[in-house]
Amino acid sequence: MIPAWLSLLDAAIAAILVAFGILGAHFELIPALFGLQMFILGALLAVLGLLSGLIGIWRTADPTLRAGRIAAWIGVLVGLAIATPTAVVVVRNSRAPLLNDVTTDFADPPTFMRAGLLEGNRNRNLDYDRQRSEPMQKAAYGPIEPLEVSDPPPIAFNHVKIAASEMPDWRITYVDPQRLALEGVATSQVFHFKDDFVIEVRSGAHGGSLVEMRSKSRDEISDFGSNAARIRGFFAMLSGRPLANS
Length: 246
Hints:
Elements: H1 2-26, H2 32-59, H3 66-92, E1 101-103, H4 130-141, E2 147-149, H5 153-166, E3 170-176, E4 181-187, E5 194-203, E6 209-217, H6 226-239
Antiparallel strand pairs: 1-6, 2-6, 3-4, 4-5, 5-6
Helix pairs in contact: 1-2, 1-3, 2-3
């Protein structure tokens, strides 16, 4: 009987932790990383509840132990509901490197000029650590090249501004028309992790332009591939639209 009721208790605590972790982080009542940690703890308890529930089902085969059997089944079902999607996410991101800063130019990465003034970035070092980040980025993602466009930099930058303003979950925080650069913050959908990005339009070959981009997570451990995906996704959007000539 003890494993059955322990399974129910684990399931209840796991559900509370997961719900509060997700909702608290999503509505920014708690830091995103803390919300993720609560979610992970809830997932671990869900696995424990699942295992205890399986033992409980076996131990409550006697019809006189019906209440314990129901408790064990609840623990198993809740454990499966939480542990299964968590396992899928873990497997999907298991190869993500311990990298939180991705750029299209290792030698001259786009520079954050105003991001350090934003709440959440104060006292953080936003410089690019090439020695650490370059080999990990190359090993994980291969080359992420700047986007080459045929229009001259001022026209290309105008298009970049329009496209960036249309990206879901992006907020433009600074535009520098002299430097042809803009900065912004991208927010993840579930836990509302904040990633800072900077885009610069530089002169390219034969009068064209190069769109360079850098994306850096505020979490100092890993971005689970979000920064590389962000750059590639934005470039795909840009390359799929005709550039305006005015």
